[in-house]
Amino acid sequence: MLHAHSVFRTKYQHRVFDGRHLARMEQIMRDVCADFECELVEFNGDTNHVHLLVNFPPKVALSRLANSLKGLSSRRMRQEFPDLVTHYWRAQRLWSGSYFAGSVGGAPISILRQYIEQQNHPL
Length: 123
Description:
The protein has helices at 19-35, 62-80, 109-117, and strands spanning 2-9, 39-45, 49-56, 100-103. It is α+β, with helices and mostly antiparallel strands.
């Protein structure tokens, strides 16, 4: 099992999310991970980004997982929260085209979970 810490930023770093958005986003991302036979160990975020700690088997390409997480969450959030449409300016995308994904093989998982738990979470 491999571990990765990923960060997805909103397009143009717009401040988009509140607590209800992040709660739904977490569930969507858990479902996508389950489809890939992965585990979303930790999730947290702020108004313009989310952090994920994912365990995944070697047969899963991290880039493919990240693209599915971003694509599906963008579509579902747009469908379920029409108020977000103002943040889907031009290209109809919620997320920035890039993302951070770092291997966490050297750090204890408990430390990474603690780091993600301590990220800002709007009310």
